[in-house]
User: Fold this.
Amino acid sequence: MGSVTGGVRGHNVHMSEKDVAIVLSGGGVNGVLLQLGFLKRLRSSPLWPRVGCIYGTSAGALTGTMAALDRLDDLETFTLGLQPRDVFAPQRLWQLPLNGLHHYALPATLAQRLIEPNELAEALAAAPIELIVFATDVSEHDETSYELTYSSYETPPETMAEAVLASAAISALVLPLPVGDRIATDGGWSGTFPSARLSSAPGSASWSPSATSRAPSASESSRSTGCAAACSGSGPPRRSAP
Assistant:
């Protein structure tokens, strides 16, 4: 794993009370909308009070942030009101050589319409659900892994805000962003579906929804020592960047 400013405490610390974890993948705006429907349904089920950890990458990093704060309704209103220029605004022609194809407008749009990213991260540090986000490290280094991992319980709020925004930044449109002492971009490059973190947890069982699946019933859930609810907005996992 690439080194990061904050470590990951992991959801095993409070597994006895919170034995459900959620994995949210990438997928752009469509991914956010799909995850919203999934999370709102999950929020109305007996599983929601047992959610202790959310793993998110790319679009899932933003959705996971609002889910951990139980602000899904705010995220829905915010997302439905977005225009393309509110997220990735085209650069002026003279700026293209230095600043990439688009200006990353999402941070300013968040601050204007919802809440300052740093305030979101500060609220995450005190939230009952831990958020773990993944970004892709493009710094110059000799390590073999490009995956950066940030926990809302262990990472300073300013760095956590940077990590969420970097993970959600589509690298084909905007330049990589500073995250603490690293330079990072779209978490989908190093792993768009970070379910491996859950599968390594002792006693965990996974549940992945599809068009024909249903959420486990309360009785089914109570028989499991651990459950992973996974939502993918972009299809099967991609291989990590070379």
About this structure: Residues 1-15, 202-227, 234-242 have pLDDT under 50 and may be disordered. The radius of gyration is 17 Å.
